[in-house]
């Protein structure tokens, strides 16, 4: 099935630090809420590290062992509601190592993607507690080629370009991107959309957390849905809500033919490096 209008719901929620039970409950409630009424979405998107938050000192105990709890929840809800779910990301423990992992489920309840964050964010000590991923993944939802990255990965244009070159037309970006870097968040999201001529769907958490070091970090929300021209289709403020927007998928080939960026690339020159 290939669709033309894709209804997206972005769950911009607070995350209770170090309290997975509360977070699994509120994710389930939010997904149920999104599916109520006549305007049900095609895709639901969650934020980064929503199961445990950045309780990194305790992450070995709090992380989802083999991702079992998260996979069960996302499988059950995507199948029951026949909705695609880009499951934000969760802390997952496998063979003693914890990674920041995105699971994606299609409407049939099948897991179609698993991606571990590649660039760990040193300002939030991720590199001290987590193990980085080493592989990008392209997947399809409703016949639409998609890719996902996580938060700090957004600063590395190589990832979204690699995904776009592999055919991805929609990029999902779950995040816990804090103050005071709102300008970077908005600008980088628009840049990734414009340079890759792809739609970008970004889900940032809201609220605040007191970390293990006793410091409070506040998150500004501002989840966004952008079209492949970089225009904002929908944008949230700082409060918890479900951001709704519709992607017109036919605009992707239209934008790509208007300015043929991909045809105009010169990879043989990029590979030569820089002459000094
Ligand atoms: N959770 C993250 O990766 C945060 C990234 C961030 O805040 C940034 O400025 O980059």
TrEMBL record:
InterPro entries: C-N_Hydrolase, C-N_Hydrolase_sf, UPF0012_CS. Pfam families: CN_hydrolase. This is Predicted amidohydrolase. One of its GO terms (molecular function) is hydrolase activity. Belongs to the carbon-nitrogen hydrolase superfamily. NIT1/NIT2 family. Signal peptide: none annotated. The keyword Hydrolase applies. The keyword Secreted does not apply. It comes from Paenibacillus aquistagni. Keywords: Hydrolase.
């Amino acid at each position: 099935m290939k669709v033309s209008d894709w209804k997206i719901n972005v769950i911009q929620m607070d995350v209770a630090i170090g309290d997975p039970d509360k977070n699994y409950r509120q994710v389930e409630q939010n997904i149920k809420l999104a599916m109520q009424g006549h305007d049900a979405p095609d895709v639901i998107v969650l934020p980064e590290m929503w199961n445990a938050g950045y309780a990194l000192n305790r992450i070995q105990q709090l992380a989802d062992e083999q991702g079992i709890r998260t996979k069960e929840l996302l499988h059950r809800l995507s199948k029951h509601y026949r909705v695609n779910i880009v499951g934000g990301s969760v802390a997952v423990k496998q063979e003693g190592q914890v990674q920041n992992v995105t699971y994606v489920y299609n409407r049939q309840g099948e897991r179609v993607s698993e991606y571990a964050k590649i660039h760990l964010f040193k300002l939030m000590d991720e590199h001290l507690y987590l193990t980085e991923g080493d592989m990008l993944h392209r997947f399809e939802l409703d016949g639409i080629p998609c890719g996902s990255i996580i938060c700090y990965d957004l600063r590395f244009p190589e990832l979204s370009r690699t995904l776009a070159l592999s055919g991805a037309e929609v990029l999902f970006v779950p995040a816990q991107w804090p103050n005071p870097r709102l300008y970077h968040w908005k600008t980088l999201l628009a840049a990734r959309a414009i340079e890759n001529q792809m739609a970008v769907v970004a889900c940032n958490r809201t609220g605040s957390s007191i970390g293990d070091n006793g410091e409070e970090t506040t998150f500004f929300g501002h989840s966004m849905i952008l079209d492949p021209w970089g225009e904002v289709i929908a944008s949230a403020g700082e409060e918890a809500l479900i951001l709704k927007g519709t992607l017109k998928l036919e605009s992707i080939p239209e934008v790509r033919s208007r300015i043929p960026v991909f045809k105009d690339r010169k990879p043989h020159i990029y590979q030569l490096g820089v002459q000094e």
